[in-house]
Amino acid sequence: MACGVDPNKTTLFVQSSVPAHAQLARLLGSITTVGMLRRMIQFKEKSKDGEGESASLTLLDYPVLMAADILLYDADVVPVGDDQRQHLQLTRDLAERFNQTYNTNVLRVPEPLVVAEVARIMSLTDGTRKMSKSDSNDGSRINLLDRPELIVRKIKRAKTDSNIGLEFDNPERPEANNLLRLYQVTSGRSREEVASACATMGYGQFKTLLADALIAMLAPIQTRFHELIADKAQIVQVLKDGARRASHEANQVLSSVEKAIGLARF
Predict the structure, then answer these.
(1) Which residue segments constitute the domains of the chain, with CATH numbers given?
(2) Catalytic residue numbers?
């Protein structure tokens, strides 16, 4: 809501408030193979041994729940980053497999919507790894509620190389490319403008510009957040209203899925 999502136009709710998510995930699990899930890159990365033998069932079948999240609402397109393309492809595969298995078309097959400029934002401490809220190092990312002085400190400490000037898409300079992308998005300037302005710029000057752009972009979000959080009852009501609307839509799709399978409710 602080970022501008209007609850009068968008249904906002807590996933666990709508049981149909878990119910559809359970049904989709019957057409999902273990092999399909073990091929998920995030599963391989997050399972400690790389093979998943010590991983929980929840980590393994999370993509099925994600598929249910999407398919319950007849989504035409789904905004994703590069790291979620594989999960969305699994969603598409499951929808197609379900429709073919039960000779129906109750599940819509969604298309990905990827914004190229922000498809993959990388870590401030390692330009070869994605920025992640689950990274144990808070300095690797910019959080929406980071104070201005903390943003300045994180950007000053961001990893760089020893070259003068920054450039896009040089595989030998991943940090320069990542910081330039951040500046392009947060400053609102075009790729060409940013590339030209920063081609001979030192990192000290550039990091000041980047920190200022981040602070300016986040300031209205943070202001609105603090306004909203002062009235938690309003937020709870928005979530309750959203859960009711979401349940109505989700239960219709779930009912169609159950009917296609041949399940009966009494």
Answers:
(1) 15-114+241-261 (3.40.50.620), 138-227 (1.10.240.10)
(2) 46, 130, 133
